[in-house]
Specification:
This is Sterol O-acyltransferase 1-like. Helices cover about 60% and strands about 0% of the residues. It is mainly alpha-helical.
Length: about 575
């Protein structure tokens, strides 16, 4: 590099201290060196690089032949070395910080109420991000089910942490690519309906909008609302009874206090039994159709889970000092879209009524879509079941024909119940934590699927069943059996009384096969492509088989004579005795 220019003094001859112009040369020289090393054309302050700047002052600074004094050159060289050393130190510090964070990551616990900016960044191992934190920070505890508890099992159990966060689909729909897929699905639905309506108009001269099936299934819904109001008033009475028990027991002696506790426990069990029994009796008395019966029994189970959560969460402090949360906390919890009690929940600043209207419109659309699938593609397959001999190949063909519409109805029901309906209520209640489900569609094992499919029920089962069973010293495996057993019984209770017969297909699929599959995992993270394809294939085939079995039993009870003339007829599958399944041909 040329250091001296014409007319410039040699070192030691007429040297002068650096001027302001020399300092500018130093700065611009540093920038030029940095630009040559990075290939950038622009300076950090937004100016054009010296190599591109054609001003007479700095146009030569971007070239290799830079004319400057020895003092300026030495200063430039020293500062360049210092900058390079600083950059090396920064890189070392970043590497050290990354290693430190990686080692200490299990001990990091998110703050309660912190706003989550992206649901994807909150995913833990195996897709768990349902707001639980462990007491000891073990990464295994952030899954839905902890490792097999040992002597420190109580310390490893985690507690529910609420935070302001969106549902996964809400964040995904904010991405244009995903929202376009949603729009395409709506267009496909519209085209499918239009095509069917045109076929009806050409073949029969009339149009069937499948509204008749909806009207029939929701018949007597005004009675459902009346019974629901009575159940809500009963839960308010339970709150009064609980506070009365908690406050009065503090003034009793030890023996009387024990008798008072046992009396309240007996009354609580009677209340829980009545909360499930009385709606069933009213439902049978009024002969409510399918959708009305399902809504009533589901709401009865929900209120039972709510009241148990409130009593279970507040009993420890009631036993300590007799304190109870205020009625406003209880009332908000009864309407909030969560089954885990807390004195305080994260809240949003306002209600967006437009969002509520959009979610309610989605609910109506999903109901219509499910009705359309049932009336057009599922009911015609089994409406005449029992009127003629059944051929096994024909049954197999009907099951395969029901797989796709049943799977679509399953996805649509998920979107209706766990996304649209829950988000509508969350918006009206200004409830901030809207992680009602997780990305179950990405999972590769049934174990991960069960943990992410329905976070609402999963949280309740873990908080009030799993933890209590483990605390009693039974271990993690019996606790998991208890979770699956209770969940399967509740599903069978709702579906059995809704259909007016007990056909244990759902119990076998969910309580037995589902439990066994929950111990299996295709890969370590449960998210491999093969596992995900297998999961979706199992879900669609399982839905098709379940729907086919229940449809055959339903129409067999309409088209076949009663086999057992007693109440046991409700428990004996009539579809097995209605016609021969040995392959008789007509």
């Amino acid at each position: 590099m040329q250091l001296l220019d014409e007319g410039q003094a040699a070192p030691g001859q007429g040297q002068h201290p650096p001027t302001h112009h020399d300092n500018n040369n130093v700065v611009n020289g540093l920038e030029a060196v940095k630009l040559r090393s990075t290939g950038s054309e622009y300076l950090p302050n937004g100016r054009l690089s010296p190599a591109r700047d054609r001003s007479p002052i700095r146009r030569d600074l971007g070239r290799d032949n830079v004319a400057m004094s020895p003092q300026v050159y030495n200063k430039l060289k020293t500062m360049t070395s210092a900058v390079q050393a600083a950059e090396d130190q920064i890189r070392d510090l970043r590497a050290t910080l990354r290693d430190t964070l990686r080692e200490n990551r299990p001990s990091l616990v998110p703050e309660t109420g912190a706003v989550a900016t992206s649901w994807g960044t909150r995913r833990q191992a195996n897709g768990h991000a349902n707001g639980y934190t462990s007491l000891n920070g073990s990464p295994k505890d952030k899954g839905s089910a902890p490792a097999s508890p040992g002597k420190n099992a109580k310390k490893q159990l985690r507690d529910k942490e609420f935070a302001v966060r969106n549902s996964p689909l809400t964040d995904l729909f904010a991405v244009n690519h995903i929202s376009t897929i949603y729009h395409v699905a709506v267009v496909v639905l519209i085209i499918l309906v239009l095509k069917t309506l045109v076929d009806d108009l050409v073949a029969h001269g009339t149009i069937n909008m499948s509204v008749g099936l909806i009207w029939h299934c929701f018949g007597g819904f005004h009675r459902v609302i009346t019974i629901w109001l009575v159940m809500m008033l009963a839960t308010m009475v339970q709150y009064v009874a609980f506070t009365n028990w908690a406050q009065r027991r503090q003034h009793f002696p030890v023996l009387a206090r024990r008798c008072w506790d046992w009396a309240f426990l007996a009354a609580l069990l009677v209340f829980d039994a009545a909360l499930l029994t009385l709606p069933v009796l009213r439902m049978l008395h009024y002969a409510m159709p399918f959708a009305s019966s399902f809504a009533l029994l589901t709401e009865a189970v929900r209120l039972l889970m709510k009241t148990h959560a409130f009593v279970r969460s507040n009993t420890p402090r009631a036993l300590t000092d007799g304190s109870c949360p205020g009625f406003s906390h209880y009332l908000y919890f009864m309407f909030a879209p969560t089954l885990v009690y807390s004195d305080n929940y994260p809240r949003t600043p306002s209600i967006r009524w437009r969002v509520v209207a959009c979610h309610m419109l989605e609910v109506v659309g999903c109901v219509f879509y499910c009705s359309f699938l049932a009336e057009r593609y599922i009911l015609p397959l089994y409406r005449d079941f029992g009127n003629h001999p059944v051929v096994p190949l024909e049954v197999f063909s009907n099951v395969m024909a029901a797989v796709l519409p049943s799977g679509l109805a399953f996805v649509c029901s998920f979107y209706l119940l766990l996304h649209s309906w829950q988000n509508a209520w969350a918006e009206m209640m200004r409830f901030g934590d809207r992680m009602f489900y997780m990305d179950w569609w990405n999972q590769g094992s049934f174990s991960a699927y069960y943990r992410t499919w329905n976070v609402l029920v999963q949280d309740w089962l873990y908080s009030y069943i799993y933890k209590d069973v483990v605390h009693m010293g039974f271990g993690g495996v019996p606790a998991r059996f208890a979770i699956f057993g209770i969940s399967a019984v509740m599903h069978e209770f709702i579906l059995g009384f809704t259909l007016r017969f007990f056909y244990p297909a759902l119990y076998v699929f969910f309580g037995i096969i589902g439990l066994l599959l929950s111990f299996l995992s295709v890969s370590q993270d449960g998210s491999s492509a093969v596992g995900n394809i297998g999961l979706w294939l199992s879900l669609f085939l399982g839905d098709g088989i379940l729907v086919s079995l229940y449809m055959m039993e339903h129409f067999a009870r309409e088209n076949c004579a009663q086999v057992i003339d007693s109440s046991w007829d409700l428990f004996v599958p009539r579809s097995w005795n209605c016609t021969s399944l040995l392959g008789q041909t007509s």
